[in-house]
Amino acid sequence: MTCTSIRALTLLLVLPLSGWFVVSSMTPASVQDPKPAPEAKGEPREGQRPEGRRQGRGPGGGPSLHGAMEQMGNEMKRVSESIADPAKNEATLQGLGRMLMAAGASQNGEPKNLAEIPADKQAAHKLAFRRALVVLARDIADIELLVLDGKNAAAAEMLESKVVAGRDSSHEKFGGDEDKEH
Ligand code: HEM
Question: How much is the pTM?
Fold first, then answer.
């Protein structure tokens, strides 16, 4: 091989390498790695629950009783404002559906006043708590049926006579926070 061809061969090998070195040393880290490790951004790793969603969870992993009740209160406020108006049936049905889900999620909890109940009566108190939530769910479902059947006045009446009354008596019995009710 001649001296010129050896030099040309060396240049051929070295040039691309040095080009890569210059480009990579000038490129910012964010461009080189567009997806930083999740933990670097304060995000959970894959399979890990986001911090915010872990808060207010009940023992079974569902929403806490407190969170479910807050949601139930907010939904009921909106439903009471729309239930009598047939033109608002879609919004009413959506709200009632969310109330039903919150009533189901509340079953993850237990009476707030459980510790104040004598030990031998606690099991029955827990059953009564669950039962009241099932009755609530049944009443909400019946109200949904009335709205679907176009019986808005009857639905509004049942919301007041069954759900609101049931809420108040249940809170008295199981320790709902009266001051924060909606
Ligand atoms: C539609 C009916 C109901 C509504 C709108 C409702 C609403 C609420 C609201 C707004 C709170 C206060 C949450 C807060 O502290 O910010 C609460 C708490 C509570 N409710 Fe209800 N509730 C209803 C039915 C029931 C029923 C049927 C039971 C029992 C079977 C019940 C048991 C409780 C308990 C034990 C708490 C205290 C939870 C805690 O703060 O740890 N509620 N409810």
Answer: 0.72
